[in-house]
TrEMBL record:
Keywords: Kinase, Transferase. InterPro entries: GHMP_kinase_N_dom (IPR006204), RFAP_synthase (IPR004422), Ribosomal_Su5_D2-typ_SF (IPR020568), Ribsml_uS5_D2-typ_fold_subgr (IPR014721). GO terms for molecular function: ATP binding; kinase activity. It comes from Streptomyces corynorhini. Residues 82-159 form the GHMP kinase N-terminal domain. This is GHMP kinase N-terminal domain-containing protein.
Amino acid sequence: MSSASSEDVRPARPGAFPSPDEVEVRAPSRVHITLIDMNGSTGRRDGSVGFAVDEPGLRLSLSRGDTLRCEGTADAAQAARVTSAIRHAASALGVSEAVHARLLGPVPAHCGLGSGTQLRLSALRGLAELGGRTLSDRELVALSGRGGTSGIGVHAFSRGGFLVDGGHRVRDKGAFLPSRFAEGVPVPPLLYSRMPPEHWGVVLAVPAGVRGLEGAAEKDFMTRHTPLPLPAVQAVTHTVLMGLLPALEEGDLPAFGHCLTALQDIGWKQAHWRREELRSWRPLLDLMCAQGAAGGGLSSTGPLVYAVYDRTVHHGAELAERVRAGARRAGMRLTSLITTNFGRPAAVGHSEE
């Protein structure tokens, strides 16, 4: 059975197709810049800013089988995540979970890349198309149960690029909760979507020995740190609306990077940088900027640190090596360090015998 060629890959969009023998879903990861309104006094809460990245990208192949089997996973935990996503998708779609799954391109979990959301969406999209059905974006999001806090992950899957969502009405979501504790809450409306200029690149560094918050720990952190003071929320909103968005529209990378860095010291992102396990990693962002990046920050609950840079000025591999060398000199051990592109939407490939 051959894998899908580049000509076979198309954006994941509505439409009816013959039932294929194998489906491969390719999805971007996402960087979560910040939650906007963690005060809620205006009648809305949450709201998010973020963007998709091509690498590390998720690639999940599904083909029919007699029972659910997983290949290509690095360990039992990763296999369990894939199995859980497929079982959730099968239940949501009302179809058999008897498929052969191959994880061709894994995304590291619990580091700030949104791997859980992308895996769940990919399993839903792939399993549906394996049965000859292509889900609309609305159906996909509704079946996924994601988007209860941030909509960046689900919108990154369908749109790619740079994204801003408008959060939730307080009457739809009565408390500040992470997405996994807010199933049934409507997906936030997408307010802004744009692909940044081609010459803008992204550098991603994952500190060693640190994990992002998840489950009960994330819920507890959100409960303890909300509501934020209204002036802090207003500062975040102002920086996004009158800083990030105009800079992107005008192609002003230095101003865009400056705003990303400024967001680290206000509102929700400031609360995360004050966590004991993250405080010593703030100099990593300073190091990235000293080596040529325009600015950046912490993705989601961490530990991923990202920055943006100009490809016409800096070669990606050389920039990464300078950051790696600087981190080594400073005693900062990294699990991974790559340069990548702003991400395109998820795509689906079919192959038939």
